[in-house]
Amino acid sequence: MSTQTPDRRTIDPAAVEMLEAAAAAGIQTAWDRYKAQQPQCKFGNTGVCCRICIQGPCRIVPTKPGMDKGICGASVYTIVARNLVRYIAGGASAHSDHGREIAYTLLHTAEGHAPDYKITDKNKLLKVAKKVGIETEGRELNDIARSVAIKALEDFGKYDSEPCAWLTTNIDEERNRKFKHTTIAPTAIDRSIAQLLHQTHIGTDADPVNIIFGGLRAALADYTGMSLATDLTDILFGTPTPVVTEANLGVLDAEKVNIAVHGHNPLLSQMVVYAARELEGEAIAIGAKGINLVGICCTGNEVLMREGVPTATNFGSQELAIMTGVLDTMIMDVQCIAPAVKDLCNCFHTHLVSTSHISKVPGSIHIEFNEATAMEDAKKIVRHAIERYKKRKPELIKIPPYKKQVVGGFSFETMMDLFGKLNPDSPISVLTDAILAGEIKGVCGFAGCNNQKVVHDHASVEIAKELARNDVFLVSTGCAAGAFAKAGLLSAEGVEAYAGPGLKKFIKRLEEKSGLNAGLPLVFHMGSCVDNTRIANLWTAMAEELKITVPQLPFVASAPEAMSEKAISIGSWVISMGIPTHVGVLPPIEGSELVYGVATQIARDVFGGYFIFDTDPASAAKKLLDRLEKRAWKLKIHRQTAEKYDSDLARVYEG
Ligand code: NFS
Ligand code: SF4
């Protein structure tokens, strides 16, 4: 049976329309290429193909004598574990290198070498400085910022054996102890990644459990890099506060110069926002009605959160934005930019502009972006887009008329402000009290990508709706948030349509005090993928308020359409933190029962968090609900017992 009828490919109405147009015009998309790749190699799909040395590839068939091990004698569990953790090394590298660039920019801003950047959020700077132990009394802001930046850069490569500052100062005492005892607290981000590559070199580590622990150390290094990226980005560009905007291809405007920022690093996209504002007049001078900036993927999320820039598409449908015929320039920085966008550009007038020396696509235009000349570079790119506007081919213009309202900008601080309107003395207790009272069942954090192996946006939206109906409070980041945005779940419309009675009451109570005319959304958008650390701050605050450990907290996570190495890395630190985590795509670990067992069961015994792999949205939602209900029930029982015997709450029971 073909899975390629439009409604089996995506639930996004704009994407359906564009895919039909693509088929009619003979334009190839990721959906076609996915089909052409079938059937995908079973060895690769189950993780049993080893290419770590060039004696390989060694493909393991456990039942076939001689093929039950690699040429070097590596067992299937070694091979599957090594393959898995090398994804984590890739993900941690991507996130932390992004964080490093932000840290350097903060350093250079403080030293006066990055004149177009400034310290926008002074309060956050002071808060972060205090958190990581930097003296602030009587010091100039730039001086403090310099120390904070250096402290962050030290987390990448310091030589002592203390765990990284951005890890230890963001998690609770119990998790700090846990990571120390299990020896997975990284002392330096770069070292834990390099060490993992060393550990998985041929002939180093053959012990799958030890390899996985090495992987978790790199995953916590990933957390560290993400966490400092979020903090320092807020310092440079401001901590997000509520914004009202829109999402889906209907945000493109035929009468304006349309520019998409695509990728991840806000150092560029934020400058493009400023440049576009400044050059609006130049666009008008050539006959356009202005400049319309839109976002794709996580750099889109960054500027959505801080500037209310609308989202055009998420990862899965990125190519389709070009097919509208009105995208004048797509600016890319790093990560998740499908090289296919260049092929699409060849059929339209759109130019793809690359900006990073480590991220180029043959045939695209390269305008190098440097922090020292940031504004000048951003203006150059915007002017390029204005020029392209004149080259549009009117006969190719087709903008699907779909867009939904989005209320976003819910940083951890904004969430606390919101809860603080109901209880200024203890904002977080507004959330935890609602759980204790049974009004809401707990919290689910959504993250992750799109993946051609599943229907675009489908599982994310279905699981969110089902959890909302069952009174689960929902937060999200990344391309999952993109799916929710396009489906109307990031607005009050979503609350009306899908919130269960308890969740609705809870959100409406917040809404009354919020002062937000647009109302509050069903799912609270907490940012880009690096901002998953904001979600981690939320669960840590909740656990501390309830005086329990994170693994006891009614908090789950879901990445219904996980795709990238970064997603695997995030999932791995999320389970280490004690959160049951659903993944809606089977990662290549089924080839080893042992590795699969560690991910889904043993992890629970050691860390309290574990993976739930389920490709069926209805059954995944049920499993997530079960976990929340069980944890909430246990929490209440233990509180009653503690009250009865006038004792402290047990801190060791399994949630
Ligand atoms: Ni996260 Fe965000 Fe999207 Fe996945 Fe890619 S853009 S960083 S990796 S695909 S959510
Ligand atoms: Fe084969 Fe061993 Fe080389 Fe892997 S490391 S490719 S199993 S010989």
Low-confidence residue ranges? 1-6
Average of per-residue pLDDT values: 96
Strand content bin: 5-15%
CATH architecture type of the largest domain: 3-Layer(aba) Sandwich
Number of helices: 27
Compute the gyration radius: what is it?
24 Å
Brief synopsis:
This protein is an alpha/beta fold and 655 residues long. The protein is 51% helix and 10% strand.
Defining key terms:
655 residues, alpha/beta, Rossmann fold, 51% helix, binds iron/sulfur cluster
Question: What does this 3D model show about the protein?
Answer:
The protein folds into four domains: 6-59, no CATH class; 76-237, Substrate Binding Domain Of Dnak, Chain:A, Domain 2; 249-396, 3-Layer(aba) Sandwich (Rossmann fold), CATH 3.40.50; 405-644, Rossmann fold, CATH 3.40.50.2030. The chain is α/β, with parallel strands linked by helices. Mean pLDDT is 96; it is low at 1-6. The longest helix has 35 residues, at 76-110. The protein has 27 helices and 16 strands. Helix 5 packs antiparallel against helix 10 (189-199) and helix 12 crosses helix 14. It has a six-stranded parallel beta sheet with strand order 6-5-4-7-8-9, with helices on both faces. A six-stranded parallel beta sheet has the order 13-12-11-14-15-16, with helices on both faces. Bound molecules: FE(4)-NI(1)-S(5) cluster and iron/sulfur cluster (SF4). The site of iron/sulfur cluster has 13 residues, from loops. Iron/sulfur cluster is lined by residues 50-53, 55-56, 58, 70-72, 74, 79, 202.
